[in-house]
Model the fold of this input.
Amino acid sequence: MRKQSKLRILRAALAGAFSLLFMALAAACSNSAMPPYGGMNNYSGPPPPGGGPPFTVTYINTTVNTTGGVPVDATPYASGATVTVKGNTGNLSWPPFAFTGWNTMDYGSDGGGGGGTFYSPGATFTITANIYLFGTWNP
Done:
């Protein structure tokens, strides 16, 4: 084998190894409470799934550098059912900020201006479609 061919093979192997190393480091450094499609207050995942009942409520934390986890609501809701919003049952923490509740819009997805509908823990709403609720924070 010629020297140039060996160098090309070595470069390709190193590029693949660095790529795997980068992916492993990214996975190790990511927040376990953050979904794989999230980013720092920049939800770029798909909208809640469409379809008819039963409907689901999915809690999402897109804020990096947090600890704890999001609540899980495994209840299949009929259309028109009353949902009670869960609290910070997974002990989400992002010092020095305080967890304040949940919002139907990720603050980063509209340029940081808020929007959506805010729900305090324990609030209720009538469900008519699948919904995502994003963690909200205040200093």
Remarks:
- The longest helix spans residues 3-29.
- The CA atoms of residues 122 and 130 lie 19 Å apart.
